Amino acid sequence: MRATAVAHPNIALIKYWGKSDIERNIPAVGSLSITLDGLTTTTAVSFNSDLEEDEFLLGGQAIPEMSGRVSRCLDLVRERVGAQTRARVESNNDFPTAAGLASSASGFAALVTAADAAMGVNIPQNELADMARRSSGSAARSLFGGFVELRLTPDGPLPTETRQILEPFDWPLRVAVAVTDAGPKEIGSTEGMVRTERTSPYYAGWVDTSEDYLAEARSAIARRDFEALAEVSESSCLKMHAVMLSARPGLVYWNGATVECIRKVRKLRADGVPVFFTVDAGPQVKAVCAPEAFDRVAAELAAVEGVSQVLASGLGEGARVVAS
Ligand code: DP6
């Protein structure tokens, strides 16, 4: 009744922002991401009939404000199996939590994977992804490695379907993560999405254009066309931040160094360096580049004032069991 799983954060190139069903956490738009290998969440789950409540430790500390979400995620696995047993969950991230580095994505992907193995059920990967999606939309994508797409399937057996598009080694891009502020973000994704949907006059335009962006990105990936992927990814990122900024009150996730990093990446690409940027609901800038460009990109970002560190990553595998 015990298993340990690892999972990596993913970063969306075509972004998810907004929900069609808040209760069931169904995204309003599909999304497309790359899974990273340089950052890891390791989660051990042990079901124990002596426990009266689930226990959750992150980095060795009890996190009461997260434990409800962890329990609800475990409930999905328990319901699937018809079990009641409570669990002790110990999770560790080797990177800053809640700073726009998608710790909830790798966290819930590792959690469902470890819980399934600890129960000995072997739930299909797409179903595990949909369970992780209930806890955090982006978490579904961390079940898979390489390039991953989450599609909306309102007429299917599950409301979303997540699948791998390319293996990590099929197009081994690298990512430099410029950390401009390692503190927790001010407004969480769920609250930010609800506010945007309720108040932004541009929200409908954001949702309406998402399928075209996904099709463009899929095609760029199939052709390994870096320039095309760069253009559509940066546009998706800026379009998401535009709709965030147009909420009332506007959501400003960037700081000055975020903007300087974006400018730097654009200048590098204009000079012929194969690199593009993306930014999530936080101030860090992720620069996606061809492997041969990585050292130059990382050095240039490290030199930007306000960048405290640059994390290095390649593309990684999906969530997997490492011990049972
Ligand atoms: C900006 O997956 O954190 O990173 O479903 O409310 O938990 P919830 O949201 P979450 O949102 C991720 C938003 C994003 C873009 C993305 O990863 O697609």
| CATH architecture name of the largest domain | 2-Layer Sandwich
Rg, rounded, reads 19 Å
Order of helical and strand elements: EEEEEEEEHEHHEEEHHHHHEEHEE
Counting H and I runs of at least 4 residues, what is the number of helices? 9
Structural features:
four-stranded antiparallel β-sheet; single chain; 324 residues; Ribosomal Protein S5, domain 2; 9 helices; six-stranded mixed β-sheet; 16 strands; alpha+beta; binds ligand DP6; Alpha-Beta Plaits
Characterize the structure shown.
It is a single chain. By secondary structure, the chain is α+β, with helices and mostly antiparallel strands. It folds into 2 domains: 2-167, Ribosomal Protein S5, domain 2, CATH 3.30.230.10; 174-313, GHMP kinase, C-terminal domain (Alpha-Beta Plaits, 2-Layer Sandwich), CATH 3.30.70.890. 37% of the residues lie in helices and 24% in strands. The protein is built from 9 helices and 16 strands. It has helices at residues 64-81, 103-119, 125-135, 189-199, 203-208, 210-222, 226-245, 256-270, 294-302, and strands at residues 2-7, 10-14, 19-21, 26-27, 31-35, 41-47, 55-58, 61-62, 87-93, 147-152, 160-166, 174-179, 275-278, 285-289, 309-313, 320-323. A 6-stranded mixed beta sheet has the order 8-7-9-6-1-16. Helix 1 (64-81) runs antiparallel to helix 3 and helix 2 (103-119) crosses helix 3.
Question: Gist?
Answer:
This protein has 324 residues and is of the alpha+beta class. It is 37% helix and 24% strand. Strands 8-7-9-6-1-16 form a 6-stranded mixed β-sheet.
